[in-house]
Amino acid sequence: MIVVSGSRPTGKLHLGHFMTIGKWLEFQNKADKSYFFVADWHALTSHRDDVNTIESSTLDLVRHYLAMGVDPKKSTIFVQSAIKEHAELYLLFSMLVSTTRLERMPTFKDMKENIKDKDLSTLGFLGYPVLQAADILTYMGDTVPVGEDQIYHVEFTREIARKFNNLYEEIFPEPEAYVASVPKLPGTDGRKMSKSYGNSIIIETEEKDMSKQIMQMKTDPARMRRTDPGDPEKCPVWDFHKAFTNSEEEKNWVINGCKTAEIGCIQCKKVLFKNMKEQLEPVWNNLKNISNDDAKKIILDGNEKARSVAEQTLKRVRNAMKLRW
Prior knowledge:
Elements: E1 2-7, H1 15-28, E2 33-38, H2 40-47, H3 51-68, E3 76-79, H4 85-94, H5 99-103, H6 106-114, H7 123-126, H8 128-137, E4 143-145, H9 151-167, E5 176-178, H10 207-215, H11 236-244, H12 248-260, H13 265-288, H14 292-320
Parallel strand pairs: 1-2, 2-3, 4-5
Helix pairs in contact: 2-3, 3-13, 3-14, 4-8, 4-14, 8-9, 10-13, 11-13
């Protein structure tokens, strides 16, 4: 089992990342090899005019990886742009993919529709899934823990691996996507949680501010008054309970109380925040003890390890494609 996954350094990590990285940790402890990277080239697709944010967020991202439990003794932590083989494999894979195929990607259409304040009409943005395939297959990744919105990208990576293997030589595995038990947390406005949409809850938010964000979250629109019964499955807050409330007794209290209007939305949210704090507090404490210098050292060590693997993969690829010069 070779695990590969990464995240874009476009700002602070939000609770959606918290769930995905939690899945990374499951695989870290049973994988033969695991690679977790900072996808700074991917960040340029939407933040090319804000590179200072990308640079500072790269170190912050690695600090969060470490605070949440990614162990550099078990996993290779590195920065994408330090490994030039990703770019070479991206170029070679791009020869196997049509532009119309990329334009049909659900994430491409979704972001074009929802992000109006950035110019996304670039080749880099269109080719994002091809670079993502290169990120995974450079390390022969067969296991990819991702958010639900990235499942289609992993399937696309499988397509590229099959096409390369059929055309040239059987080199690449066909990776499988794995999502967290709660695959998608909604944002504060009920849409997908995304930094790009401005509706995310940041992991490192001060306790008082995070509590305020939770209390302001949208709930089931049927509960106009305290006495109106609701349906938890129509309420974004219930999705958070599924992620952070481990007690079955408390979950049943939420379900029954909501459906019968025995509890109000504020009561429900207070129990949720209590459980969120319990899971997030260790991460908050760990972050205080991990410096940017600590993160930088981990990155430099990880870059060397990743580069040696990437070089071997590209030697095989060049040989298969008769690019031996």
